Amino acid sequence: MTDYVTIAIPKGRILQDSVALFKKIGIDCEELLSDTRKLVFENHEQKMRYMIVRATDVPTYVEYGCADLGIVGKDTLMEAEKDLYEPLDLKFGYCRLMVAEPVELSTKDDPAAWNNIRIATKYPNVTEKYFAAKGIQVELIKLYGSIELAPLVGLSERIVDLVSTGETLKQNGLAEIETIAEITCRLIVNRASLKTKHERISKIIEGLEQHI
């Protein structure tokens, strides 16, 4: 399998957009969209292999060389802080990493006066760095889902989470306060693979670049 190029991709919308993008450069991976529990797919004709993994695990599989390439959101890369080459912004999966708080609090709150605040988030590393740069101390509570619930039950007054349309925040009585980062999906590459499979990987990167 050393002559194969392996790509790690998460399930969901990213997978659909990735398959469509690869199709534009002649890489056929439609099988990944089939209703199956398979996690590894191989295209022997094109010498490609695909791994379906959790989004948060994509950088790890690529960093350790189990996958040569990966597609994942910039938010995951910022949080994971892995040693990877990131050649392309793929321009899909746009959303924002936001600080949010209850609407009633936002009407009287002054973010410039924040100090020693408690924040619930899936992104403790990114959140800590962001507030440290502003000189604000934060107590971080890591959660893995339904971050909007934290202010509703008194776990924290504020959250840091991904926002797409903002509808989920509104439905839970939360207001957007600050944008930490604008997020899109990125192509990532294992540094060793870039050398050992340089010709094939460069061809993929150049092909994708022409279609984004």
TrEMBL record:
Belongs to the ATP phosphoribosyltransferase family. Short subfamily. This is ATP phosphoribosyltransferase. Keywords: Amino-acid biosynthesis, ATP-binding, Cytoplasm, Glycosyltransferase, Histidine biosynthesis, Nucleotide-binding, Transferase. It is an enzyme of class 2 (transferase). Residues 54-209 form the ATP phosphoribosyltransferase catalytic domain. The gene is hisG. Heteromultimer composed of HisG and HisZ subunits. GO terms for molecular function: ATP phosphoribosyltransferase activity. It comes from Geomonas anaerohicana. The keyword ATP-binding applies. Pathway: Amino-acid biosynthesis; L-histidine biosynthesis; L-histidine from 5-phospho-alpha-D-ribose 1-diphosphate: step 1/9. Catalyzes the condensation of ATP and 5-phosphoribose 1-diphosphate to form N'-(5'-phosphoribosyl)-ATP (PR-ATP). Has a crucial role in the pathway because the rate of histidine biosynthesis seems to be controlled primarily by regulation of HisG enzymatic activity. Lacks the C-terminal regulatory region which is replaced by HisZ. InterPro entries: ATP_PRibTrfase_cat, ATP_PRibTrfase_CS, ATP_PRibTrfase_HisG, ATP_PRibTrfase_HisG_short. It catalyses: 1-(5-phospho-beta-D-ribosyl)-ATP + diphosphate = 5-phospho-alpha-D-ribose 1-diphosphate + ATP. It is found in: Cytoplasm. Transmembrane segments: none annotated. Its EC number is 2.4.2.17.
